[in-house]
Every structure is written in structure tokens, then in C-alpha cells.
Amino acid sequence: MKPFQTSLLLFALIFAALACEPSCGCSPAPEKYSPLVGRWELSQIKYGMTGTVATPQQAGYTETLDYYADGTFRRLKNDREEENGSFRITQIENIAGFTEALYYQNKTYQPYRLQENTLLLYERAPNDGVIADGATYTYRKL
């Protein structure tokens, strides 16, 4: 093979290999979602400005989140579906101690952290915004 053809072939192989790797850190691979997959029930709300802690009963509603391995979710409020769609996980700059976020249908995002069977969600915000002193919602895995 001529040197030019060899170089061209090598370049094409490198480009193809790089094209297969996700560059945004938001791969929909099921193993990425596995710790999040399942049903989560709201157990506590901690309001940022006041530090007040409330149970769902005190807040006046219940909420259940279902996350699926295919990158879809469903949110139930008082046992009625409020929202469903797709999500992705992305690394973010530190927001109130959170370094990963769930991006919902490319419209809003919500910083989150998993601790064993507990899911902590920070206040949801538009993709181009940051909520200061937002509430933190604690869910337990069912």
C-alpha cells in the first residue's frame, strides 16, 4: 500500500474509533443508569432558604419517581402521572455539593446524588439557569 493510502486508512480508523466514544459524558448505556433504576418515594423535603424540613404529609402531597434502564422516567404526584419522558445523566460543576445532574428532555436539569438506597435531588432548574438556595428532596428506594 502506498504511504498516502496507509495514512488515509489510519486516519479513517482513528476517526471511526473516536466517533464511537460518547464525548459528552451522557451515554445512555444501561449500566450508567443502573443505580438509579427503580422506584423512589419522596420521604423528606429540606427547604434551602430556611433549612426547614418537611415530610410529604406536611407538604401536602406524595411523589414517586420511576427511572428505567432505557433512559426514560415517570413522575407520579398523589398517585397520578404528572410527567414522563427521557432523561440523561451528565457531570456538572459543583452545585450545592452535587456533581452530577439528570437532564430531562433537554429542557430542565436536576442535580442529584445517590447514597445507598437514598436519592437526593436538588431543586430543578432550566438548562441555562442555577437555583440558589433551592430545596433538596430526599427519596427512598422501594
TrEMBL record:
Leader peptide range in chain numbering: 1-19
The name this protein goes by in its record: Lipocalin-like domain-containing protein
Keywords carried by this UniProt record: Signal
Superkingdom: Bacteria
Organism in which the protein naturally occurs: Larkinella insperata
